[in-house]
Each structure stands twice: as C-alpha cells, then as structure tokens.
Write a structure and sequence with these properties.
Radius of gyration: 41 Å
Distance between the termini: 99 Å
Strand content: 15-25%
Number of domains: 2
Bound molecules: 2-acetamido-2-deoxy-beta-D-glucopyranose
Largest sheet: 9 strands, mixed
Helix content: 40-55%
Number of strands: 9
Order of helices and strands: HHHEEHEHEEEEEE
Structural class: alpha+beta
CATH class of the largest domain: Alpha Beta
Number of helices: 5
CATH superfamily of the largest domain: Mannose-Binding Protein A, subunit A
CATH architecture of the largest domain: Roll
Length: about 220
C-alpha cells in the first residue's frame, strides 16, 4: 500500500495525467481526485523544486561571498588607514633636526639667546607650549644634559598675576609647577628636572615646536 502511494505521488509530479486510466483505487483517488487536490500536489512539487534551487543558489552565493569578503574587509582597512593619514598629513614627518614628541616636532636650539630673541628665532614655529605632565616627562627625558635650560613659551603676566603661555592661555598650576621668582619680565625655562623662572634677559637655549595636528582647545579655569 505504502509503495503505491509513493509511486502515485511521482506520477502526479510528472504531472500530465496521462496515466489516468489506472485500476489502482488509490491511484485514482490521487490523480483523478478533485481538481484542487491535483493542483495542491503540483503546487507542492513546484515549491519543493523552488526550494531546492533556492538552497543551491544560496550556497553558491555564500561561497562567493566567503571568497570576496576578506578582500572587501581589506579595502575598508586600507581606506581607514588612508583617511587616517590624510587627516594627519604630517604625522611622524619631523625632519632632522626636528625631533618628534607625540603630535609635535621639537627643535632644541644650541644657540643661547634672551627669551625675546628666542621667541623671534622660532620662525615659522613657536616657543614650546607644554600640554600636560606626560608631555613634560617626555621632553625632560629628551634633555639628557643636567643643568641645561631651554626657554619655553611661558612668561609671568604681572597684570594678571599669573603664568601665561604665549598662546594667551594661563598655566594650569595643578598640572605644571614653576619654581623660582615671579614678577615683571620673568620667563620660564625647562631643565631635565623642573620648570624654572628667571629674568627674561638671561641667555639660554630654547625649544621651538611645530604642531603636526591642531590640538583641541581645552578650557582651563584661571585659578
Ligand atoms: C591598517 O592599519 C591597521 C592598524 O592601524 C593594520 O593592522 C592594517 O594592516 C592596516 N591595513 C592596511 C591595508 O594597511
Ligand atoms: C621683549 O619684547 C617685548 C615686546 O615685543 C618688549 O615689550 C620687551 O621690553 C622686550 N623685553 C626685552 C627684555 O627685550
Ligand atoms: C595654549 O597652550 C597651553 C599649553 O600647551 C594649552 O594648555 C592651551 O590649551 C593652549 N591654549 C589655546 C587657546 O590653544
């Protein structure tokens, strides 16, 4: 009985009803049953066929994607790297004798000058501005000779009774401390151990800086 049912099914799938005059009652039931029954079976077969093709199609596209995906990921990486380098066109492009520290190029001058002269000598650049403790540490590590001092872009402003960077911002005294006198015509230099203040007429070496990328402006309190 079971086998007959299977054969009958297959017959219907070939679909033409050529074998209609059959003597098997079951066969007749299926193939010559009500039209909706035959239609349903045809539909079922079509769906099965469609599903089979869909599975094959999906498999093929998955294989295809697996082959192409790593390539496109690489392309994304390359594009990211590209955009990163176009954002920072000067990154790590400090040319001798400029020395790279974080996002800056620094020039440690060998000639000794007053603070004013040093300020003008850093042409096309600026006297050093120190952003934070970490930058201070990196620069001091670079100053290997003990006792040598370098003018930086920091000066006392008697009017505002505060240390003022040459970019107009006040020193954040919680972050960096200056030892020494304060007053009129007092400027700051850096050694490998500290920031020291002295008369701006004194002669020292100096550090110029060029920024590789605009540093985000931070707001400090004037305390
Ligand atoms: C992009 O940079 C990342 C790390 O920054 C690196 O792992 C990757 O290999 C680079 N890709 C290309 C294509 O240079
Ligand atoms: C430094 O320059 C400023 C203005 O540029 C001037 O007022 C000051 O007197 C100068 N200081 C010295 C010591 O030359
Ligand atoms: C000026 O320089 C100091 C020290 O690097 C920095 O903290 C401050 O944000 C700068 N101010 C401006 C307005 O760029």
């Amino acid at each position: 009985m079971d086998q007959q049912v299977v054969y009958a099914d297959l017959d219907v799938c070939r679909g033409t009803g050529r074998r209609v005059p059959s003597h098997s009652p079951l066969h007749q039931d299926i193939c010559q049953g009500p039209p909706w029954h035959r239609f349903a079976l045809k539909l079922g077969c079509s769906i099965l066929l469609f599903l089979a093709f869909a599975v094959i199609g999906l498999s093929v596209s998955v294989i295809f994607l697996q082959q192409t995906l790593p390539v496109s990921v690489n392309t994304v990486h390359a594009q990211e790297n590209l955009s990163e380098t176009t954002e920072r066109p000067f990154a790590s492009k400090c040319t001798e004798p400029w020395y790279p520290i974080r996002e800056k190029c620094l020039l440690f001058t060998s000639d000794v000058c007053t603070w004013n002269q040093s300020l003008t000598n850093c042409k096309g650049s600026s006297l050093l501005l120190i952003q934070d403790q970490e930058e201070l540490r990196l620069i001091q590590k670079r100053i290997d000779s003990v006792g040598v001092q370098f003018w930086i872009g920091l000066k006392y402003s008697p009017a505002e009774k505060n240390w003022k960077w040459i970019n107009g911002s006040f020193l954040n005294s919680e972050m960096l401390q200056v030892t020494g006198i304060s007053g009129k015509n007092i400027c700051v230099s850096i050694s490998n151990t500290k920031l020291t203040s002295e008369h701006c007429e004194a002669e020292s070496r100096s550090i110029c800086q060029k920024e590789l990328k605009p540093i985000r402006k931070k707001v400090y309190s004037d305390s």
